[in-house]
Every structure is written in C-alpha cells, then in structure tokens.
Amino acid sequence: MTSGLLCLLTLPFVLGRTPGDLEPLIPSTPSSPFPDSVLRSGFNNSFGPSLGSVSQSLSNFAGFEDDRGTCQCSVTLPDTAFPVQRVERLEVTAHVLSQKFEKELSKVREYVQLISVYEKKLSNLTIRVEIMEKDTISYTELDFELIKIEVKEMEKLITQLKGSVVGSTTVVNQLEVEIRNMTLLVEKLETLDKNNVLAIRREILALKTRLKECEASKGENVPAAPPPPAPGSCGHGGVANISKPSVVQLNWRGFSYKYGAWGRDYSPQHPEGGLYWVAPLNTDGRLLEYYRLHNTLDDLLLYTNARDQRLVYGQGAGIVVYNNYMYVNWYNTRNIAKINLNNNRAEVTQTLPDAAYNNRFSYANVDWQDIDLAVDENGLWVIYSTEASTGNMVISQLNDTTLVVLNTWYTRQYKPSVSNAFMVCGVLYATRTLNTREEEIFYYYDTNTGKEGRLGITLRKVQERIQSINYHPFEQKLFVYNDGYLLNYDLIFNREPK
Q: Where's the Olfactomedin-like domain (predicted)?
C-alpha cells in the first residue's frame, strides 16, 4: 500500500544532474516538457538499486514544467520512512556483540592452549604411572606426593574450565574422568608400595625385638639352646612354626594372573646358588604358557635381566625347579615333563602310574593341580591321588634324571580337602583354609617313619587363595603364590630331633 503523500522533487536532485547538464546528453522534443529518455524512465516503488539511474524505469510520478521552465515531479513514497535510528541501534548492538564474541573467543583459545598443555602433562603422568605399575622399584613418598600435587593442579583447572566454558564440554568431562582414574591408580600403587614397606618394617621390628631379648638375657644363667639346623640339613625335629608373610611383589604379568607358582632353583651341588623363577598360568588357571627366569633376587625385584620362555604343554601350578630343570604336568595327561632351562626343551617325559588328572582330585579352591611336584633336602617328589586310593593323597619319590618312581607312600588324608602341600626332609605338610586371611598347616605325613598326625600352625596370607607352595632347602623358606602375589615365609624348626 502507498499513501497519497505528494513529494515535489527537482529533476536535478533525482537524476543527479542539472538541466543544463542533461540537455546536451538527452535532447528534448517540443511536444513534451521532459526529455524523451526521462519520459521513458521512472522510479520504482521501492527506491531500490535503480534510484538515480536514468537507464532504469521510473513509475508512480507526475511531472510538469512551471512558468520559469523548471521541471517538477511528484513521487509517491511508502507510508513508512526508512528506519535510520533502528539501523544505527542495530549497528551499535552488532558492534558490541562482535566485541563480546571476540573476548569469549580469546578465552576459548586460551583454554584450548591450557587443555593442550595439560593433555601433554596427563600423557606424561600416564606414562610414568604405567612404568610404576609395571616396575616394582621402591618409590619414595616424595615421588608419590609430587604426582599427587600435579594431579590436584589438573583437577583445579578442570573445575575452572567446567565453570567457564559455555556449551559442549565433552573434552573437559573426558579429561576429568581420566584425572579421577589417575588419582585412584596412584593411590593404589602407593598402597601396594606401602605393603612392601610395611612388610619390611615388620621384619625390622621383629629383629629389634629379638635383639632386645638377647640383651635382656645377657648375664643370666640360661642353659645353652641347641644351635639352629644348618641350611640344607635335616638335624631338627620338624616344622614348629612359620613367620609372617613377606610380600616380594606382584607377578610380572599383572593382577589378572592369579594362578601360578614361583620359587628358587635348588641344587645339592651348589645349594647357595640357584636362579629365581616365576610362572604365572594363563587367566584360565590351567595352561602354563610363559615363565620368567632371573639370576638374582635384585633382578627379580627390578624386572631386569629377565629371560622369558614359552611353553605349549604345561598344566596347573604344581611346578617346581630342581638342579636347573623345570618339572611340570604335561597338558591333558598324567605325564611329567623335565625341561632344560638352558634351551627350554623337554628332555624327558614320563607317565605317573595310575595318577588321576584333569581335576579328578585337585586341591580345594585350586583347579588343574592333581599332580603337584615338590623339592626338599632328599630330592624330587610328586603329590597326587589315584582311583585306588579313593582320592587320598599319595606321595612318590622320583628319580630326577629319568622321572621313574622310586618309592610310594599312601596317606589317609583326602586330597580335595587340602588347600596345598609341600615337602620338608621327607615329611609332607598339608594346609587348609581357615578364612580369607589365614591358612593352617594341619596335617603331616613322615615318609621316614610312616607316621601321620595333626598340627596347628597358622599361616597368614595377603589374599584369599593360595595356588602353590614351594620349599627351598638351603634358605629354609616357603615360596608361596597367593592370588598373583609372590610371598616368602621363614620356617621355624624344633631344635631337638624327634
């Protein structure tokens, strides 16, 4: 709609030229007061881009020539004038918004840079924590505190970012989750390290207590006690007690490998020597596929100078190493294999007569250990059951060269009710579970005399299940695999031989 408002405009204003300027360019005719070109053109209703151009058509106008020869015209305009003030306000608002946007954009750039920096820090921390998780080097409290400080700094930044960044915060939320996981992992590692430290401190306290007792007994007329048995000898009256566990470390394959065995090679020719071995089973708790050898305890603790070997036929955690050979139950059979640790080859395999296998009579809470090999001062042994023994434990001494059975003893102890067993000086000692933190050495069978009986020696543990126990005659220690953790126990013997 257009209004009836009549506006007088001089042609020079409309066309941008004076009449004098137009006359030589646009010749007029006597029959019209306007030049022909002007009569053929006009203004459009919207004052669009054609305004002021003589080449565009003009419309909605009326023109005449007054008495003084001046051309005048009337043009019909829209009823609303052009909103100049609103446009100006819009321009100001746009400018303000542009400034705010630039300010926020600069903040986002700054936070992106900070996030990039802390992503690198988080990556570096992740690498350091992974190294700490794989290694068992004793880290000091200062190392853990420094890592905690760095993690707390990142937590503060994440809190600031979440409060400042508007819109999608996916990256920030992801970083927050990773930092939270990092905190938990550091705390877990610190706890594990403290366990080792506490175990050492307990040993130190026990030593201090013994020293105090020795000092207190000075000058007293105490009858001389018999000396402790020499390492590797059987001049004692059997196991009387056992020390608290010393946590050596987690097995080298990690938390998931709860089944396995570990120990130290014993050679009668070189009793003080012998390499250390760790043999975690696969997570199925059955297949022995990899084992690792270390020349010294320090190498084992630091995961250095390790020799990794692979098998395809080991079954169960009834593993033992004797005189530089590893003895295992051959997978899915009642056979025993003798493996040379120098070349990882099975040099001898021998069937154990009538032995039950494949979980027929395994230990309580531990599968695939129907055949359990053991070593003591007298040589190589195997603990198992047969159908003829109705599941009761059978003890056989083996020739360590040919694996032929030398002698066999039959007990009255049902093997599936036993949690594990070991041999010391020809005496079988069996354990049972009391609760999640205690086992009990409750039964013995002496192959020297044929006698058997009950004991009540408490054996503490750090995890719920014990998978294997191996005895080292020279050190007179038990090497226990406890839900993936490697534990040591010192045996205490009766001084007087029975």
A: 233-495
Question: Residue 443 in contact with residue 429, Cβ under 8 Å?
Answer: yes
- Domain segments of the chain: what residues? 7-75, 84-164+171-198, 239-493
Give 58's contacts (C-beta < 8 A, 6+ positions apart). 38, 41, 42, 43, 44
Gap between the Cα atoms of 277 and 247, Å rounded: 16
The residues that bridge with 449 in the sheet, in sequence order, are none
Helices 170-216 and 141-164 pack at an angle, to 10 degrees, of 160
Neighbours of 47 (CB within 10 A): 13
* Burial call 199-230: b when 16+ CB within 10 Å, e when fewer: beeeeeeeeeeeeeeeeeeeeeeeeeeeeebe
Is domain 239-493 in CATH 2.120.10, yes or no?
yes
For 191-208, write each residue's pLDDT tens digit: 665 555 455 555 556 555
Write out residues in the chain with pLDDT < 50, as ranges.
1-58, 137, 197, 221-223
CB 77 within 8 A of CB 2: yes
